[in-house]
């Protein structure tokens, strides 16, 4: 059993606490937050509220510090915690740029402590469902993956709409969606093109559209929107033998697989809703197979965050290598850096990430 303290006890820390209270290998013990209201709230929830960061860092009973502040101070706090001899679980994004994460990596190596990042969306059901069908070849060779997360309510108040504090949708959601794809496809990213928008929040990207190209030619198109009143499917994936669509977080969707490539064309151009075209005329229903996806997803599962905790505990115990490594997070951050550069220059950035 490892003892954990929160550095920053805001909304996400509270969410972790609810999970950790049901988890048997890490005991949440204390919290330090600069906001007195949150300090009091931590006490109400049964935690020791540290009066200063020095008191937190010098508490010998704490093994793990969970950094859950706004993004711009993740680097500074993580390094201080590592230097105080603590293992660190940092909220995503680990840092706002790759140089900062490289400093953390050096510090973790010097102190011989585990540093990992809460890239919890690697275990989301919608992602795992898509990954399963891509990897088992159901739709053949996959050449394009589209991943979208869309809302219409803008960005919540606070640091998320302030650039210097690490706001904006690339750092908030982009980091999850890029991480999912890079975790699934361990090949180099050779090209990044991104368009960012500031529709309602002038200081940050409140919407973005990113296209990453991998060495094999596979493209991943990622969109995060806060101003979409009509949404696209969560996942839309094209393979040479079929198409997969997952509609939303509920994980409903379908796969349509090609059974007969020969059954293609009518002899003459026929009249269809598309007008006079053979190319876009409908396929005969017998030439395809439809697989309905209806795996029930009743929301975010308690066990999903526990997977991240389990992986960290196994790495501390040296039972297994760390799964969410800082080196993987570094690649994701480098892609985000290329995306910001692309958006600023309005051109594609060649990369070798
Ligand atoms: N993994 C996920 O699914 C997920 C979901 C939401 C948020 N997050 C991440 O969690 C982190 C926190 O987000 P949040 O929504 O909880 O924000 P929040 O604003 O609710 O909480 C941040 C807290 O940090 C405190 N704080 C700021 N500076 C501090 C300092 N120097 N020392 C101590 N406390 C300090 C603030 O007072 C606040 O209580 C962010 O990095 C965010 O990206 C992750």
CATH-level-2 architecture of the largest domain: 2-Layer Sandwich
Uncertain spans: none
- Coarse shape: elongated
* Distance linking N and C termini: 37 Å
CATH topology name of the largest domain, in short, is: Dihydrodipicolinate Reductase, domain 2
Strand tally, please?
Answer: 17
Count up the helices: 9
Could you tell me the radius of gyration in angstroms?
23 Å
Which small compounds were modeled alongside the protein?
Answer: nicotinamide-adenine-dinucleotide
Order of helices and strands: EHEHEHEHEHEHEHEEEEEEEEEHHE
Summed up:
This protein has 353 residues and is of the alpha/beta class.
Observed structural traits:
Rossmann fold; 2 domains; nine-stranded mixed β-sheet; 353 residues; 31% helix; binds nicotinamide-adenine-dinucleotide; 9 helices; Dihydrodipicolinate Reductase, domain 2; 25% strand
């Amino acid at each position: 059993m490892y003892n954990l303290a929160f550095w920053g006890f805001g909304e996400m820390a509270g969410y972790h606490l609810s999970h950790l209270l049901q988890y048997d290998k890490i005991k949440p013990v204390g919290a330090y937050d600069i906001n007195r209201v949150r300090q009091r709230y931590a006490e109400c929830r049964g935690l020791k509220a540290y009066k200063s960061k020095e008191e937190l860092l010098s508490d010998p009973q704490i093994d793990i510090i969970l950094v859950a502040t706004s993004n711009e101070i993740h680097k500074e706090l993580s390094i201080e915690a590592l230097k105080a001899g603590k293992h660190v679980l940092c909220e995503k994004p680990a840092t706002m740029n790759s140089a900062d994460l490289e400093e953390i990596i050096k510090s973790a190596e010097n102190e011989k402590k585990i540093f990992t990042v809460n890239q919890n969306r690697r275990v989301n059901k919608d992602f795992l469902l898509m990954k399963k069908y891509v990897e088992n070849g159901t739709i053949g060779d996959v050449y394009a993956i589209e991943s979208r997360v869309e809302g219409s309510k803008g960005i919540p108040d606070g640091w998320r709409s302030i650039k210097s504090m690490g706001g904006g949708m690339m750092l908030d959601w982009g980091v999850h969606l890029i991480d999912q794809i890079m975790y699934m496809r361990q090949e180099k990213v050779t090209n990044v093109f991104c368009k960012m928008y500031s529709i309602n929040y002038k200081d940050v990207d409140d919407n973005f559209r990113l296209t990453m190209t991998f060495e094999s030619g596979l493209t991943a198109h990622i969109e995060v929107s806060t101003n979409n009143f009509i949404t696209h499917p969560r996942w839309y994936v094209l393979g040479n033998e079929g198409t997969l669509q997952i509609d939303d977080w509920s994980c409903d969707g379908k796969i349509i697989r090609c059974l007969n490539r020969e059954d293609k064309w009518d002899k003459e151009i026929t009249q269809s809703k598309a007008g006079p075209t053979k190319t876009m005329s409908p396929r005969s229903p017998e030439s395809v197979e439809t697989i309905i996806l209806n795996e029930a997803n009743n929301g975010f599962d308690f066990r999903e965050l526990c997977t991240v905790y389990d992986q960290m505990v196994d790495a501390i115990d040296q039972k297994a290598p760390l799964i969410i490594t800082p080196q993987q997070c570094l690649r994701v951050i480098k892609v985000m850096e290329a995306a910001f550069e692309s958006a600023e220059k309005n051109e594609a950035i060649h990369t070798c990430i």
